[in-house]
Amino acid sequence: MGRPSVQKQRKAEVLDAFLTCAAKYGIEGATLERIAAEAGLKRPLIRHHLGNRDDMVKALAEHVLAEIEALTGRMKEALVDYPSAKDFIDTLFSRESVTDPRLNIVFQSLAQASETYPGLRLELIRVMQKLYDMASEVMAQNYPRSSNADCQIVGQGIVGLYLTQDSLNPLNPPVEWAYSAYLAALRLANTLQAA
Question: Which parts of the chain sit beneath pLDDT 50?
Fold first, then answer.
C-alpha cells in the first residue's frame, strides 16, 4: 500500500503562506518567491498546489470569503437566543470574536485587485452584504419604529467601526481604541427609535 497523499495538507499550507504574504505585501506583492519562502517549499511546488496566478488568486479569494461567511454564520447562530442590538455589538467587539487579522487585510487587498480579476468584485460585495444585512436586520428587529433606511445606515456604521477596529489588530493598539469603538457602536445603535 502506498503512502497517503499529503496533497490536501500541502495545498492548505501553501494557501496559508499565500494569505500571510498577501497580508504583508498585497496581492501583487505576494510573489511566488515570497510564498515559497513562507511555505518552506520550492517555487515550482507552489504552482503545483495552486495553479497559475489566476488560479492562485481565485483559491485565496475563495478561502478568505469562506472564512468570512463562516464567521458571519457563527455570529448569526450566536444571536438566535440573544438578538438585541447590544448582543450583536457585544458579539462583534468581544475579545473572543477577534478574527485572523490577515482575513480583513487580504479582503482589502482583494478589493484593490478586483479590477484585474473578473468576478471578484461581485463575490466580495456579496459576502460583505451578508454582514451588512445581518446588522440591518438586528437593528430593525430591535428598533421597529425606525425606518429601514435608518436601520441600514446604523448597521453599516456599526460594521464599519468593527472592520476598522479589526483591521488595526496587527498593530496591537491600545485597549482604549477597541473600547471606544465599542462604545461608539452602542451610541450609534441608541440613535434609533426604541419600540
Answer: none
What pTM value is reported for the model?
0.83
Q: In sequence order, what DSSP letters do the residues of the chain get, joined into one string?
A: -PPPP-HHHHHHHHHHHHHHHHHHHHHHH--HHHHHHHHTS-HHHHHHHH-SHHHHHHHHHHHHHHHHHHHHHHHHHHTSS--SHHHHHHHHH-GGG---HHHHHHHHHHHHHTTTSTTHHHHHHHHHHHHHHHHHHHHHHH-TTS-HHHHHHHHHHHHHHHHHHHHHGGG---HHHHHHHHHHHHHHHTTSPP-
Q: How far apart are CA 189 and CA 142, in angstroms?
A: 9
> Cα(172)–Cα(120) distance, rounded to whole angstroms?
30
The Cβ-side half-sphere exposure at 142, using a 13 Å CA radius, reads 25
- CB of 169 closer than 8 Å to CB of 112: no
Amino acid identity, position 139: M
What digits encode the pLDDT tens for the residues 61-85?
Answer: 999 999 999 988 888 887 787 678 9
Domains, the chain, with CATH or none? 1-51 (1.10.10), 60-189 (1.10.357)
